[in-house]
Every structure is written in C-alpha cells, then in structure tokens.
What we know:
Layout: E1 8-10, E2 17-22, E3 30-32, E4 35-36, E5 38-39, E6 62-64, E7 71-76, E8 82-84, E9 87-88, E10 90-91
Antiparallel strand pairs: 1-2, 1-5, 2-7, 3-4, 3-8, 6-7, 6-10, 8-9
Amino acid sequence: MELKQGMRLRSRACATEVIVIxxxxxxxxxxxxxxxMDLEHGxxxxxxxxxxxxxxxxxxxxxxxxxxxxxxxxxxxxAGSLTIxxxxxxxxxxxxxxxxx
Length: 101
C-alpha cells in the first residue's frame, strides 16, 4: 500500500489505529499483529494478533524504524505490534532538551 502523510490506518488484528506522520516513497507493507493494516473506514477486526506479534502499542507514541523513513502516531492502542513486513517498529525516543544554565 502506498502511504501518504495524514493517512489513517486501522489494524485488522486488534484495536490499534495510527496516523502516518512521515511516509516513504513507494509501497509499504505495514502490519499490526502480523496482519496487514487497512484504511480506517474499511477495516474490521478479523483475527487475534499472531504469536510473537502481540507486544502491543502505546497511545500517543510515535513508532519508526531506521531502515525505512516511516513514522506513525498511535491514536488508539491495541494488543498487536507494528511491523513493516517482518521488521518491527520501535517507539521513537524524545530528543533531550539543552541544559538551561
């Protein structure tokens, strides 16, 4: 699926919903719980997350991966883990603020 900034996606394996913050060019195989995510308006929960892909997502956290310039924001948490094909997405860490002496 070709992703665009602002696109809303919903998991078909759990309650997870995300908004695309930064999208790479071309097709991306983004999954949640091991099952491909779908556009928000067309998705319905079809199955439980696959074993090993059930680490869950956290509300309000941004997920990214260094291999692909993709960043998503979780708007609704769920039981499935976010991946691009088999590469897991990790929580993006906040940048430390400079010291104000």
